[in-house]
Amino acid sequence: MAENTASDVETSFRKFAVHGDSKATGKEMNGKNFAKLCKDCNVIDGKHVTTTDVDIVFNKVKDKSARVITYEQFNTAMEELSLKRFKGKSKDEAKGLIDGLIAGKEPANAGVTKATKGGAVDRLTDTSKYTGAHKQRFDESGKGRGIAGREDIKENSGYVGAYKGSGTYDDKVKEGKS
User: Fold this and answer.
1) Residue 74: is it exposed, middle or buried by C-beta count within 10 angstroms (0-12/13-18/19+)?
2) Could you give the CA distance from residue 26 to residue 170 in angstroms, rounded to a whole number?
3) Quick one: pLDDT band at residue 78, thresholds 50, 70, 90?
């Protein structure tokens, strides 16, 4: 069973390593994704292990000039965090519990892609509350009426809008010739 859990942990490592980075190969994980893994898999409990502890352990296990850790360095970091997270347990037992938390998990995208709709947006887009000229532009179901809903429909007769003698030009020209 320990071998199965180890492969599940490595699979989770690879999924978190490529999360949010289109160029990542899954063999190395950056600090942001390491913190996300610890948060999403409940390694960070807020009491014994905090985000600061996770950042410190990440910087301790990575190479001095590197910005990423390998899977072997990840295992070293998890051993160190497991002793903090499960105080009073043996090293192997604590590592097994941490592996159980991580195994089979994927990066959570909760609330990332959803657009939130506030009360103001609902109120401003509710066509049943429109008044005046705006009310005439929508039917009872809230669907727009288009040009028919507008009061001022443009005429293409060639006359100015308020001109009262439209269509009388031909009559005047004919009277002048006769």
Assistant:
1) buried
2) 82
3) very high
